[in-house]
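This section describes the prediction task in plain terms. A model, or a person checking by hand, is given the sequence of a single protein chain and must write out its three-dimensional structure as a string of tokens. No templates, partner chains or ligands are provided. The sample shown here is typical of the held-out split.
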Amino acid sequence: QVQLVESGGGLVQAGGSLRLACAASGRTFSNYVMGWFRQAPGTERQFVAAISRRGRSTYYVDSAKGRFTISRDNAKSTVYLQMNSLKPEDTAVYYCAAKLTSADNIVVKIPGAYDYWGQGTQVTVSS
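The expected answer:
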């Protein structure tokens, strides 16, 4: 079992920044691909970003490219999502997820492929 706890959400004005963190416990963090997803009311869960288990590969949804940065600190068992130039359409509950893998450089963007999920943190961007 892996437990994931997100933090860092909140209310911010358009153009502002937030840094989300997801702390993991229970297994060897570096064995997991990590991803960030978001879900707005009435919509399906959407992929935002993913990072390979050693941090060498990253992948972003087009709307996040150039604004969001995913990173990880395996010594702290934590993955981060730095979000800059936030827009009202970024408003959602943000979830981190973990997928066990033996491959070093893969990233995964399909929600159903992930093994563990956090409870989510609310991000609200006002216009």
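For orientation: The chain has a mean pLDDT of 96.
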